[in-house]
Amino acid sequence: MHGQRIIEIALSTTRCLLAGASVLVATLCTGPAFADDDGRPVKVMIINMFGGTPFPFSEASAFTANLGLTESIPVRGLSPDYPNILCNSDDVCQMVAGEGHANVAASTMALILSNKFDLRRTYFLIAGIAGIDPHQGTTGSAAWARYLIDYGISWEIDAREIPGTVADPTTPAWPYGYLAIFPTDTTTQPWNSLPTIPTPYHSEMYQLNEALLQKILALTGKVDLTVNDNATASAYRGHYAEAKAKAPPSVIQCDTMAGDTWFHGIQLGERAAAWTALWTGGKGTYCTTQQEDNATYMALTRGAISGLVDLNRVAVLRTASNFDRPYPGESAWHSLCGCGPEGGSGGFVPAISNLWIASAPFIKDVVAHWDKWKHAVPK
Description:
By secondary structure, the chain is α/β, with parallel strands linked by helices. It has a single domain, classed as 3-Layer(aba) Sandwich (Rossmann fold). The chain contains 11 helices and 16 strands. It has helices spanning 2-30, 61-67, 101-112, 210-220, 231-237, 243-246, 266-279, 293-305, 332-337, 348-368, 370-373, and strands at 40-41, 44-48, 71-74, 84-87, 92-96, 117-118, 123-132, 142-144, 147-150, 155-156, 178-179, 205-207, 251-253, 255-258, 286-290, 314-323. Strands 2, 3, 4, 5, 7, 8, 9, 12, 13, 14, 15 and 16 form a 12-stranded mixed sheet that branches. A hairpin with a 4-residue loop joins β4 and β5 (92-96). α2 runs parallel beside α10 (348-368). The longest helix is centred in the first third of the chain and has 29 residues, at 2-30. The N and C termini lie far apart (81 Å). Keywords: Signal. This is Purine nucleoside permease. Residues 1-35 form the signal peptide.
């Protein structure tokens, strides 16, 4: 009897272990559901790059008070500087992602994978300040993007060593030392040649949803941005020769260039314009320069692959805090640092202020007519 009892206990223990193992295997194999039906619904998620200071000294401050974002939700993996998502009772929320490619990618992935939010019908508004090409706009202007171009994924040769210089007198002479990684044309115009597509990076160029872009332009295109202008900005832009640089700020549509290196000057600005034209087949128009948007969008694409977000619901707004090059007679260094006798551009405060007033009609319309927006972009 004693031996039989030992066998029974052993069999019972084995059955318990097998049952526990089967539960564990099932959990590991199935994993969490792609979308959390219990997550907080969000109508609009605003993504800014820096906060921490009161209005009008940070991107986040342009939205926090105006939208009454008083509900604070901690999310693991966000920037230690901005560890909480802020929301209001209208289901409009805000994430401050941090600056640069690495920060925004990490923060956006943390948001998407947190399971605290249901983002499947959320409209994402990436909203920040930028430099602007004086051929396309002026300080304080608000530019809605169709194309996102990455400035940094490229080969670079120091401009003092490119073909056509003393270091390399071969022809044809290159206009600058940037070109695509493994361009298909290595002899005639390597700097003006695309690589074989798709590339391993998958993030050199994105095109946003045209229906959403046109709806936003219809809602915001006539917003008066001059209410936030100032005498310093007006006087500074008057030094430029370009008509669009001299004009008062307005809502415009043109495209944005992302890169961790904060470039500046006529030559690099011209490269940005050519790079945009190359990657968009001549359809895009470079106008703003910033450090984040392609990385943010890449993180959103990962979420879309998992069924967590809808890429047709992404909009990008950049307001111009400075020009991307000097005016005639000003050095590139003084234009960049604002530390010369010419002074600064005066564009920072108007750019921060105009983030809100240029996007408010869109945000308010989504909330007011959510019964339409939740299904798709309204006609």
